[in-house]
Amino acid sequence: MNVEHRERENRFIVRAGDDEAELAYTLPGPGLIDIQHTYVPRAARGQGVAEALAKAAFDYAREHGDKVVPSCPFVRQWLRAHPEVAGLVDSRYAT
Description:
By secondary structure, the chain is α+β, with helices and mostly antiparallel strands. Helix content is about 25%, strand content about 30%. It has helices spanning about 50-65, 75-80; strands at about 5, 10-15, 20-25, 30-40, 65-70. It has a five-stranded mixed sheet with strand order 1-2-3-4-5. It is globular and about 35 Å long.
């Protein structure tokens, strides 16, 4: 699955037919990436698209030395299944 980072738009995307799945984020301060929301078109759900987007965002944070603010409900849920990335979550927002 090809995840594209559109850094100028603050989002990661996966093309899903004629639509796009996305994970959108903000940069609230130095060294922080706040994952705001994840959207996957109905036709692409259940295929691991949201998981791939979350993984790409955490990989990006790791590569840049950033901490993650998991504002997105999906990402908070995803974190429970991926304790290996818990160290990337900003301690003020750990679940």
